[in-house]
Each structure stands twice: as structure tokens, then as C-alpha cells.
């Protein structure tokens, strides 16, 4: 599809069909009752990811290892005993089990990276269920085994960027030069403005806001917050996951998006897709339409990337160069 290198920095490759169906029905809460397929027709597994790269010309995918631990924790509260002492004991066992699931998922992702030169990963964390020692040990272990960064999902744990439980993570990652990619939003937990204090306290922090901020009205709210933070802090970056489709669908003019990216700094912008979740989200946007492949939306986003009125250097840097520079990826 393209002669330039493309690295997808924001990817959710899933372990198995069962793992994918759990994301689809348990995290996204999609079902036939919503007029959607009862289960997805593709599962975002490593084999499928390799096929997508072959079909689209993407050179490399970066796995953001996200465990929806907050969902598991909230659901688990419903089955705890009534007796207070038993409840405390069982709640601690539940916490331990979910933390183990986070760790096992990270271990799996690192194994995929070791097996394929075309994959890298950011390890996932949960600052609510993992204590400071466990958080830092998981990041350190991930780095030792090849992880390029850390994935943080505030909406999963119901926290914001100023939560004190994230301070040890910010401190460690800033001192070690480890980038953090955080889910961002203007309509749920993950408001970019709430990271201001951390960026002030840790000037070396490398923070990637997903989705340009992810505001429902382009350029406003959370999008504007990311722009303001990028102007104030040199370590702030962002990715375009979930946003290029707005150009493809005619909701944002190409020139308008390019002006926004240049205001942030095109050296701070990374290409990302949010595959395979992005393809599932498209089910909801197009009810009744059966996808013909696992990368229909991604195809349109790549077309936007290649046709935006950018300079050649800007396009090359957004497509791959900025990710390589930020993470040190050499494979």
C-alpha cells in the first residue's frame, strides 16, 4: 500500500478468540441485543495481525497490553461473601488473581515480541490493584525482557492523571526514560489536563496521549488540552488512533487536521490505529454491515495518512520516525 515505513504504535493484539470475545462482550459490552454480531468474526490474534501487516504494508505493530482489570474487579465484588472477615480475605484473593492476570498478559505479550521482529510492546499496569512495589517490579521486568514502554488506561481503574498512586510510576519512568502511553478522553476518565501536575514535577516524563485527546468535538476540550500541554512540556506526544477515520468520513477536513498536528508539532505525533478494537467499534457505527476483512477501517485510515497535505518529512516521521526516536526501537 505504501513505500514508506509505517509503525502502528497503538495496537491491541489479543491472545485467543476467547480473549477477543471477552473484550467484545465484557469490556465493550457489545451484543446481539444492540443489533450487533453476537461475537466478532475476527479476533485480533497474532496470526491475524501478521496477515494484516502483509495486506496493508504496515511494517511493525506495537502491542499495548491492556488487561481490563477494573472490569474484573468491579464484577468480582458481586460474588464476595457477606461476612466481613471472609469478604476481606476473598477480596484480597480476588485482587491477587487479577494482578496475576495483568502479569500473565504482559508475559504473553513479551513472548510475542521475542518471537517476532515485527512486534514490540508496552506493558500494562493498574495503579489501583497493584501496590508500588508490584507496579515498579512489573515495569522493570518488562523493560528487562524487551518492553519499550508502559500502557496506562485511566478509564479502566476510574482514576485520573493526578492520582498519587501513579507518582512512583511517573518518577521511575521519567528517571529511566521510559515512555508512558495513556488513554485520553474528554468524556470519561483520562482528561489530559489532569496530568499537568505530573508533567511539572517530572520534567523528563515522556507521555503519549492517545487519540489526540479524544474529544467529541475536534480541536476542543481534551484535544485542546493535549495541544496546550505539548506547547508547555517537551515530553508530551500524542497518537492519531481513532481520529483519522473522522477525516475519511468527512467530519474533519484534511487541512484542519494537519493544522492541528502542526500546532502540536508533527515531531510529537505518532501513527496508531487502536486495532483490533477500532474495527469492533466500527460495528457500532455501521449496524447491519458485515465486514469483509479485519482491516476495513484500518485501510481507510492508512489512506488518510498517505493523502494528508503533509510534507514528505512530516509524513515519514508521523508514520514511523517519531516512534523509533521516542522508544529507541531498532528492529
TrEMBL record:
Presence of keyword RNA-binding: no
Name of the protein this chain belongs to: Amidohydrolase-related domain-containing protein
GO MF assignments: carboxy-lyase activity; hydrolase activity
Keywords: Lyase
PANTHER family, per database record: 2-AMINO-3-CARBOXYLMUCONATE-6-SEMIALDEHYDE DECARBOXYLASE
Pfam families with a match to the protein in the record: Amidohydro_2
Domain Amidohydrolase-related: 7-326
Amino acid at each position: 500500500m505504501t513505500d514508506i515505513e509505517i509503525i502502528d504504535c497503538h495496537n491491541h493484539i489479543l491472545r485467543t478468540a476467547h480473549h477477543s470475545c471477552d473484550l467484545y462482550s465484557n469490556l465493550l459490552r457489545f451484543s446481539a441485543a444492540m443489533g450487533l454480531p453476537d461475537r466478532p468474526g475476527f479476533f485480533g490474534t497474532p496470526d491475524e495481525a501478521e496477515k494484516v501487516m502483509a495486506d496493508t504494508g504496515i511494517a511493525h505493530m506495537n502491542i499495548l497490553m491492556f488487561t481490563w482489570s477494573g472490569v474484573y474487579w468491579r464484577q468480582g465484588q458481586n460474588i464476595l461473601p457477606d461476612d466481613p472477615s471472609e469478604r476481606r480475605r476473598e477480596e484480597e484473593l480476588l485482587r491477587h488473581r487479577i494482578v496475576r492476570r495483568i502479569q500473565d498478559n504482559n508475559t504473553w505479550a513479551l513472548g510475542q515480541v521475542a518471537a517476532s521482529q515485527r512486534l514490540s510492546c508496552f506493558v500494562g499496569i493498574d495503579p489501583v490493584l497493584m501496590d508500588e512495589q508490584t507496579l515498579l517490579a512489573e515495569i522493570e521486568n518488562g523493560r528487562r525482557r524487551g518492553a519499550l514502554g508502559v500502557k496506562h488506561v485511566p478509564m479502566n481503574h476510574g482514576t485520573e492523571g493526578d492520582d498519587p498512586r501513579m507518582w512512583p510510576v511517573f518518577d521511575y519512568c521519567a528517571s529511566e526514560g521510559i515512555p508512558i502511553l495513556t488513554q485520553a478522553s474528554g468524556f470519561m476518565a483520562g482528561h489530559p489536563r489532569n496530568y499537568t501536575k505530573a508533567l511539572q514535577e517530572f520534567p523528563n516524563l515522556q507521555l503519549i496521549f492517545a487519540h489526540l485527546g479524544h474529544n467529541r468535538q475536534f480541536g476542543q476540550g481534551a484535544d485542546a488540552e493535549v495541544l496546550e500541554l505539548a506547547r508547555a512540556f517537551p515530553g508530551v506526544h500524542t497518537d492519531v488512533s481513532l481520529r483519522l477515520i473522522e477525516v475519511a468520513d468527512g467530519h474533519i477536513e484534511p487541512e484542519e487536521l494537519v493544522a492541528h498536528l502542526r500546532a502540536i508539532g508533527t515531531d510529537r505525533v505518532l501513527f496508531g490505529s487502536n486495532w483490533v478494537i477500532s474495527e469492533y467499534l466500527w460495528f457500532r457505527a455501521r449496524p447491519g454491515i458485515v465486514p469483509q476483512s479485519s482491516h476495513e477501517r484500518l485501510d481507510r485510515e492508512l489512506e488518510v495518512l498517505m493523502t494528508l497535505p503533509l510534507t514528505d518529512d512530516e509524513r515519514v516521521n508521523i508514520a514511523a520516525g517519531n516512534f523509533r526516536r521516542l522508544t529507541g526501537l531498532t528492529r
